[in-house]
């Protein structure tokens, strides 16, 4: 793996990348950043978790004219959650230079606030197609100075469900621009469609198939009526620190989550019926270890980025083989071994055959011992999430929150986990045995001389 220092990046950016533990490039970064820096269009295919966001983020930020407060780059994402995570990562990479402004424009948030933010100018906008198309049509987002457009998760972005919005957005963009498409998979039809937006693109493909040495895959023959019991047996056997359970529908998601809770397990659910605020909270709580189990649909989980997700369960086999690749690609990251378990109903063997053909494997469904003992003790998450009604716009930093708990409150730093800031909200994970004390400190104390309302999210 080659170091970032071989790239023609300025010293401040390299120093910041090093502070973020970006010292050597992943394969996709090594192969895609050079053509991006040259201003070329790009089709980049790599598995989920391979460092795609940093690849296009480094390229966009390196060529940014910071003194010019105009929209120079637009990043389109299929979901609000992915847009949130991309925005956060771009802001981390942008720390090498003061005054780089990155805005997130997605549905689920008040339009008037977003348009107010756009009036104050920015360098980069990250958003979802529907909301971006809307602010463009209203004239509050102007792309006359745009240099680059990124389609993240491009296979979904260019799916027929998004194509009308994508076409509309590209009509507002200058003809002379750079277009980058990043995704885990590309079908031939999607490639043809994407080329209508790209100009002689460089094609980069890295590890399009997930290594079976990193992701251990098992398939279990299970009748629909026995799925919940089979799931409890597998959770009892493996006792994962983090497990993502995929269902094909919102109803199935709710039902599985309810059944797990009735069995005494702490779990969260993520699907399209949740409000944006609820979805953001669920993602934070699962990511920071306040819940070990998340039951989700594909669309809702799109963009969920957890570095060390131990286990994936396909409670429902996906309808499309490429979706299976996306799902299992969330585990087995950063060289760590992952586990992907799938239930196969009697009438679904053909789907397993399609997966085998697509991945060049020869998996067979096997029986599961439904008489096995279910032991779900010691599966309670060690962290709990507290929230504060103040965030980035209140100038609250993670260090301020950590100081309020440790310096002022005497809680050990080891008992404080991940701290996530949003515009008007901050989440902090703390060990459960200090949660009441931490809540009291945040509720009754002050941060930067101000009182904020705190809440326990459990």
Topology (SSEs and partners):
Layout: H1 11-19, H2 27-37, E1 42-46, H3 52-62, E2 73-76, H4 80-93, E3 102-105, H5 111-119, E4 124-127, H6 129-137, E5 148-152, H7 154-157, H8 163-172, E6 178-183, H9 188-194, E7 202-206, E8 215-221, H10 227-238, E9 243-246, H11 250-262, E10 267-270, H12 276-287, E11 293-296, H13 298-301, E12 311-314, H14 321-328, E13 338-344, H15 349-359, E14 365-366, E15 383-388, H16 398-406, E16 416-421, E17 426-431, H17 435-444, E18 454-457
Parallel strand pairs: 1-6, 1-7, 2-4, 2-5, 3-4, 5-6, 8-13, 8-14, 9-11, 9-12, 10-11, 12-13
Antiparallel strand pairs: 15-17, 15-18, 16-17
Helix pairs in contact: 2-3, 3-4, 6-8
Strand order of the largest sheet: 3-4-2-5-6-1-7
Q: Briefly note the CATH topology name of the largest domain.
A: Rossmann fold
Q: How many domains, in number, for the residues?
A: 3
Judged by helices, strands and strand pairing, the structural class is alpha/beta
Uncertain parts: none
- Write the CATH architecture name of the largest domain: 3-Layer(aba) Sandwich
**DSSP strand tally:** 18
Q: What name goes with the CATH superfamily of the largest domain?
A: P-loop containing nucleotide triphosphate hydrolases
